[in-house]
Amino acid sequence: METQLFRIAVLKEFGATDSNLQELLDYNQNTFEHESLVEAIRSAEFPEPHIETWQRYCNLAKLEGAFPILSQKLVQLKFPIKSGISKTENYQIATKRGTATDGMLEATGLSLIHPDQVQLFLHESLVGLIPVILVGDREDFVALVQALTKKNEPSPVSQSMGACIIGGYNNWNRINEYRLKWTNQQLSPPSELDWQTEFKKIIPKKPLYQDRFILLSKGFYSNVPASSLGLEEKDWLNLSHLIRLEHECTHYCTRRLLNSMRNNLVDELIADYRGIVLATGNFNAYWFLNFMGLEEFPLYREGARLENYRGMPPLSDSAYKVLQKLVKSAAENLEKFAKGSSDNQSYDVKLLQPKDQQLLLLIALTYLTLEQLASQNAIQFLYQSIQQFTYLLTDS
Which run of H or of E encompasses 14? Predict the structure, then answer.
């Protein structure tokens, strides 16, 4: 109740009215689950089940190329991007039942402009390895997003989108490998009915067949040109890659540890904070505001990333304006915190390994709401949160 009253007071301070107060409270509700954090941290010491399979993909990619291997293993890449293709019977039985695409007229393959510029590797995040597909050409990135997240339909992809995490991906290649292994273990050749019975048993065991991986492009982060940040294009491209990769890894961390990963501004602020700090050593609020289209606050640059996180249903215009004020203040508070945090770490924090220190800060950030991060007490809240979870991590 005390936190709720504080949030209401902050929202009113930033201009919220009785008409938009509840929608902002709902939008900014903290959904990160901290109750089982110790167990989640311990489980993150072990790679997820799909990593072994993707390690094989990476090994094959070194010999045959990343895109040819991915095209063999991921069923959506056997189909082109075409309007209406997801409604065809062959597409549905291939992607929903794992039926082999041999002989399917629709399965002409996904066509890329520069397939040779696709790379595949495993990246070490704060909570373990995650597969990354890195795409060199923007149009190829869009095609892969459409294939893997939009059922091969030519749905629009925002110019400000340069990466995404694909989670809960039903990998029929893994299911087929499981079937082959299961078949070889049977005393006599199993029938199709036998397999369907076994298949029903594994459906609830999602780690056996569902994968999570990152799809990454090589362009400027958030489609912001180098000139906007006073950088050379080559330097900005290198920094963009680091920011983008760490941003997506942050989403992976919150999903694996805290069971939450949303298209929400507090999630984006935390992920961009991690990305900018990793790339540059500190947090720059002006960079973040550029990424969101608020570099000339209170003006907003149409088409920027901010509009991707307006919520479902979308916030009203008046609530959206309040949200912009909140996120600007929160970013500025985080910049102040980042500049002073190295000198103000407690002795317990300094005892932790650097990776654990990063994990601690990430967890501390997820404990706070956007209202708390935007308030005059933000830095105090952050240190209190860090202190709370320092003991949690050291005890674990």
Answer: none
- Nearest CA to 254 among 165, 387, 154, 122? 165
Write out pLDDT tens, residues 359-382.
Answer: 989 999 999 999 999 999 999 999
Structure tokens at 144: 């892969």
Burial class (CB in 10 A: 0-12, 13-18, 19+), 259: middle
Write the DSSP assignment of 197-232 as a string of letters.
HHHHHHTT-GGGTEEEEEEEE-S-GGG--GGGGT--
In angstroms, rounded to a whole number, what is the distance separating the alpha carbons of residues 131 and 153? 24
Specify whether the CB–CB gap between 271 and 186 falls below 8 A. no
Is the pTM above the cut of 0.70?
yes
Interatomic CA distance for residues 19 and 24, integer angstroms: 10
Confirm if 56 and 106 have CB atoms less than 8 A apart.
no
**How far is Cα 111 from Cα 167, in angstroms, rounded to an integer?**
23
Tens of pLDDT, residues 282-300: 999 999 999 999 999 999 9
DSSP code of residue 191: P
CA–CA dist 252, 229 (Å, integer): 28
Give the span between the Cα atoms of 96 and 89, in whole angstroms.
10
Cα–Cα distance, 231 to 362 (Å, whole number): 28
Contact predicate 277/283, CB 8 Å = yes
387/317 Cα distance (integer angstroms): 38
Taking a C-beta distance cutoff of 8 angstroms, is the pair 311, 9 a contact?
Answer: no
